Amino acid sequence: MKRIVINLFLVFHLAMILVWSMPLNTGIVTDLKPKIAPYMFWSGLAQGWNLFAPNPLSLNTRVEAEISYRDGKTGVWAFPLPQNYGYIKRYTLERQHKFAFDALLNNKFAALRPDAARYIARLNNKDNNPPVTVTLISYRSQIAPPGSGLPEPWKRTVVYTYSVQAGDLQ
């Protein structure tokens, strides 16, 4: 019985991944995707085809945190960008990258922002000069079409500001 349950789970899981990752817009795939979307997002297996043709992503995005310290000085902490690392490190950073761009910048997941700000405050805590505020900032720039010249300027957007409490740094 145990083996049957495990095999059924594997078949179900593989079928969900297959249906979700098909770039086809056939009737059955189009009908099934909304039904399996909650499972795919809950399990962290949701994939998007927006990286590929015919409509690839046309936006560069990065997320930083501006940290204000008790003495009035400020600092910047940047979420790691995969292009700044080798291939093996990029692979290990992908979940963190998806969290920063798919969750923190998505208003549906705004409840995650205070926890992210507290985490950044703890990472940047200095014994004699603790953080007072952490501001999450998004920078976005349109990717210019090939041969069009200079890249577009970066647009800065404050996503969230958190006032650090004394208990947050422990």
List the helices and strands and how they pair.
Layout lengths: L1 H20 L5 H17 L15 E11 L4 E5 L8 H18 L8 H11 L7 E12 L12 E9 L7
Antiparallel strand pairs: 1-2, 1-3, 3-4
Helix pairs in contact: 1-2
Tell me about this structure.
This protein has 170 residues and is an alpha+beta fold. It folds into two domains: 2-43, no CATH class; 59-169, no CATH class. 39% of the residues lie in helices and 22% in strands. It contains four helices and four strands. Strands 2-1-3-4 form a four-stranded antiparallel beta sheet, with helices on one face. A hairpin with a 4-residue loop joins strand 1 and strand 2. The longest helix is centred in the first third of the chain and has 20 residues, at 2-21.
